[in-house]
Amino acid sequence: xxxxxxxxxxxxxxxxxxxxxxxxxxxxxxxxxxxxxxxxxxxxxxxxxxxxxxxxxxxxxxxxxxxxxxxxxxxxxxxxxxxxxxxxxxxxxxxxxxxxxxxxxxxxxxxxxxxxxxxxxxxxxxxxxxxxxxxxxxxxxxxxxxxxxxxxxxxxxxxxxxxxxxxxxxxxxxxxxxxxxx
Length: 182
Description:
This protein is mainly alpha-helical. It has helices spanning about 10-35, 40-50, 60-65, 80-90, 100-115, 120-130, 135-140, 165-180.
């Protein structure tokens, strides 16, 4: 059985997990303000950080990630739901590295939905995310296929390739390509 290019190596998944956890944690207050006492997204981010540090193995994290259900379903606002989805995408990196772009995109979506009167909110968040990327994270993310082109993972046709999230991921991937151009 062939492994999807969207998986990334375990080393690369650990690199991108730390960055994705930063992205998700930045918008976590949007969820927590609305769903006080619901620790699922915070716990998912903590597990993502533990995975990034090598404290959780892949199999353990995959089992843990499916235990709590989706916090996004319990959110009342679209911004809070997107923030919860950012945490969920981050926790899925242990299985497939391409989820890092999903975590980042949902965090950008959450930030923009939380500030409807600030059309620049998404760009501000994108710039912040790029500023947090170490070179090893950039390198790993550049190795992923363009969203919508490879059917063997989360960047294939579907949720991460469509709508606002798909547009955001395309913007992130364009920024990664620009950063590598001579």
